[in-house]
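Here is one chain, start to finish.
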Amino acid sequence: MSIDLSVVVNFHNMTREAPRTLHTLSRGGQRGIDALSYEVLAIDNGSTMPLSASVVEGFGSAGAEFRYVFHGTKSPSPVEAINAAVRRARGRYVVVMIDGAHMVSPGVLAGMGAAFRAYAEAFVATLPLHLGPGVQNVTVLNGYNQSAEDAMLARIDWQRDGYELFRAAGSTSDGSMGWFGALFESNCFGMPKAAFERLGGFHPGFMSPGGGLVNLDFFRLAVESPDLAYVLLLGEATFHQYHGGVTSNVALQAHPWEVLHAEYVRLRGNRYIRPVRPPILLGTMPRQAIELGLSSANVGLKWWGQVPR
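Its structure:
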């Protein structure tokens, strides 16, 4: 049976983070999706502390089937697991999340559906944010950790209204400048399954922990693809939970960028440069995100004004 969307979300040793992420992807966490058929493929990529299949499947309903898939591997890279999951996906469109620590805002799936109705051939991105008072590579030096994050999330009613997560997000995860800037990557993007396969999927050569720069690599390929409309969901985002990640939860001076970039250069033959293509903005701004939207507009639109045309 064909469905509208297949959400592929990758986990590795995330028994703490996964239930929150899966809740935000459920019908209880998303809005405006009564007419949308979708599935969530929860990929457990070689975890030594696997998720419970019953817990994963418990987030589903008759219209939103959650499936648990354990991918047995010793590889630290999720590339093979994600490519395999996309191949088995039943949806015409796939939504890919390389890092299952990212919770999503309530309008992401409805926004994906609206984008694909407007542009059948589209690459639809969401803005990545860090939970906590700032970029986690910095806040980790000031004591931000899982306990601090748990206490912070307990103070807001994000289960009832996922847009409350904007109140707990202090920064974009990189120098993208937000919705009105220029993204380096997206940790929850959607596109036709056929287009993902046409672009070759995630390059199998990215074997570094976490996939190295594979997410940036594929984002660049998709954004620069002339046959795909580039859509960014305005007012929607993903929220990265602290989990001791390879790149997001290490101090900047210990960041493995040079090692990961060397792998990129070996595979692609040139240095990584973020794509510069203005997106089509689609969506509305929830009240909790207005402050972030204003700061994004102040810096991002000025930046675009200085970009040579």
